[in-house]
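Q: I'm writing a short explainer about Glycosyl transferase CAP10 domain-containing protein for a general audience and would like to include a description of its predicted shape. Could you first generate the structure from this sequence?
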Amino acid sequence: MIPNARHNEDIFKRALYDRGHEEERRTPLGQPRKYWKSLIDPAFVRDVHSCEPSTCDTILSSYAFRPRQSNVKTFRYKYLLDIDGKGWSGRFKQLITSNSLVFESTIYPEWQAVEPWVHYVSVQVGMEDLYDTLMLFRGDACGKGAHEELGKKIATHGKVWSKRFWRREDLVAYFYRLMLEYVRVVSRDREEMSFHLGSHEV
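A: Of course. Here's the predicted structure. Afterward I'll give you a sentence or two in plain language.
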């Protein structure tokens, strides 16, 4: 999180917004959800594909689509939302290394060393808690009840962890150990390929 007045207060959007019943729903503080349209304006990026022409036309007419943002523009936002696509998101490393607070919504487990609410903020897959979670850090429509220092702390922890423990060297070491284990598993003499730490090596 970049602590300056010009840092965009909005959230970087890539989530699906249900325009049907959101008008009537309310936050725990009793505010109508429609007020959050001034804070969150999500849209899909790129074109629709991998669907029947009629289905693609329906999707295009039903939901908002906008051009993809560059990383330079993306990292100007104080809050970044990362969600799954057709598979796991490949943007998490890049986002958590920025100065922004990452809201992560995924069905896939993250690396055990990275912890939600320590290095990033976890959001439910259905996005039911997205507005209220954002309100915890951003505050209400008037900025009341904000905990921006907490958001800054989490964002800083995420960036520091990424730069210290998610380096290329760490990935190479992990992959090397993975290949060693794979060789052991497929070996005809699996026990012979096993590693046992001797007492003299401790």
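A: For your explainer, you could say: Residues 35 and 142 are 11 Å apart (CA to CA).
Q: Perfect, that's easy to follow.
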